[in-house]
From TrEMBL:
The keyword S-adenosyl-L-methionine does not apply. PROSITE patterns: HTH_ARSR_2 (PS50987). The keyword Transcription regulation applies. Transmembrane segments: none annotated. This is Regulatory ArsR family protein. It comes from the Bacteria. Residues 70-98 are annotated as: Disordered.
Length: 98
């Protein structure tokens, strides 16, 4: 478990909790050997999840591709927009007003 703690930069209790959730969901199997527990991914349930996600992946991929085409077709706005959506004054404009 120490390797996972180091690699994931999580605490030991957090890693233990995640492994327990994965085990209870049937996504990993565990084999105890003395003081160690060896975890192994179970590809079957993960393939089922991948199959279930496939139509959503296609939907999002098509939607994001359409958004990208739309944004690429929009003219570039030379003015910088602030968080409220209104154009911000540039340094030169501020100096001219004073």
């Amino acid at each position: 478990m120490g390797e996972l703690v180091d690699e994931l930069a999580l605490t030991q209790p957090a890693v233990s909790k995640h492994l327990r959730v994965l085990r209870e969901a049937g996504l990993v199997s565990v084999r105890q050997e003395a003081q160690r527990r060896w975890y192994r991914l179970r590809p079957g349930p993960l393939a089922d999840v991948d199959e279930w996600l496939a139509p959503y992946r296609r939907l999002w991929s098509d939607s994001l591709d359409a958004l990208e085409r739309h944004l690429d077709a929009m003219p570039d706005d030379p003015e910088i927009q602030n968080e409220t959506g209104t154009p911000e004054e540039t340094q030169d404009e501020t100096e001219e007003q004073t």
